[in-house]
Design goal:
This protein is of the alpha+beta class. Among the domains are: 141 residues, Tetrahydropterin Synthase, Chain A (2-Layer Sandwich), CATH 3.30.479; 71 residues. The chain is built from seven helices and ten strands. It has a three-stranded antiparallel sheet with strand order 3-2-5, covered by helices on one side. A three-stranded antiparallel sheet has the order 6-9-10, covered by helices on one side. Strands 1-4 form a two-stranded antiparallel ribbon.
Length: 311
């Protein structure tokens, strides 16, 4: 009995050992797959990507840039960060990336404006790497999909590096104009828009450490700025009063002009009469006037009647 029991025990031990070894091999195989599986990146036509080594046994280090419309395979654990290559729009206003921008005009009226700030991210490889290391990685501003949309981190980054300089540029340019000029004069509005655009590169650059231009090719489109409703209502009432006054002035001017024209007509007629009197004499003119108007200037008189002279 003891010999049989020993055999069974030995056989069970061998099976257990073999099973444990198999499980160990499975675990090792899974671990190998995890650590040696290559990473891949696929950029869209308006994207570029940065490639960083980041494997289990390698330090995190920049490797190279991946151009647009490219699929690449890299080492296990490596990371890829995609950024937009095409023009980006930062929309402020209803339904945009942020609310309308408010500012104060030269005469102290608070106004609001919506619009679009367009720009390009500098995707030169070395510049983009520095942007990622200093800013993009901090905000997780890299794109999270291949559909061209930015991430939440991208918008958060823009709220610092685009939105704040934009507010400053609009506020500074607005100090040169009254609210009525900005609200009613298209020429002033266009000039104001150009002044905002001219300030953007410098103000954005102040937000960045170093001399790199991470954002380039700015374009600004501002809609018609609007004052508060009560101010706008007062301005409309003022404009209506001015319009009524101008209409009255125009009517009075027209009446004066008509009177002057009538006077000139009467002067011409008087001159014409004077000339006819010179030719016909006063009595002759009066007779001719009567005839022209259907009257008979030759009325009978008692001196021309035949009377009875019989005593």
């Amino acid at each position: 009995m003891s010999t049989t029991a020993n055999k069974i025990a030995n056989r069970a031990g061998a099976v257990k050992k073999a099973t444990g070894g198999f499980l160990l091999l499975v675990v090792l195989a899974v671990a190998v797959l995890i650590f040696v599986r290559p990473t891949t990146v696929s950029t869209g036509p308006d994207q570029v990507a940065l490639h960083y080594s980041d494997g289990a046994f390698t330090p995190r280090r920049f490797k190279d840039c991946v151009s647009s419309s490219t699929r690449a395979w890299d080492g296990p654990g490596d990371k890829h960060y995609s950024y937009p290559k095409s023009q980006r729009n930062y929309v402020f206003g209803e339904g945009g990336d942020r609310p309308m921008v408010t500012f104060v005009s030269k005469d102290g009226i608070e106004m609001s404006v919506d619009g679009v700030a367009a720009f390009l991210l500098n995707t030169d490889c070395k510049t983009l790497q520095k942007f990622h290391d200093l800013i993009g990685n901090r905000y997780a501003a890299y794109m999270d999909s291949t559909d061209g949309n930015g991430s939440a981190g991208w918008l958060q980054m823009l709220s610092v590096y685009i939105s704040r300089p934009l507010e400053t540029a609009i506020d500074r340019a607005s100090q040169n104009y009254t609210y009525t000029e900005l609200y009613t004069d298209p020429g002033v509005k266009a000039q104001w828009e150009q002044e905002v655009l001219a300030q953007m590169p410098e103000l954005v650059g102040r937000q960045i450490d170093g001399d790199e231009e991470f954002f380039t090719d700015f374009a600004i489109t501002l809609q018609k700025p609007v004052p508060p409703e009560q101010v706008k209502a007062a301005l409309v009432a003022q404009q209506e009063a001015v319009a009524r006054a101008k209409a009255k002035e125009a009517e009075a001017a027209a009446q004066v002009k008509a009177a002057q024209a009538q006077i000139e007509v009467e002067k011409a007629e008087a001159a014409k009469i004077a000339e006819r009197i010179k030719v016909l004499g006063q009595e002759g003119y009066l007779k001719q006037y009567a005839i022209d108007h259907g009257l008979n200037p030759y009325q009978p008189t008692t001196g021309g009647l035949i009377t009875d002279s019989t005593p």
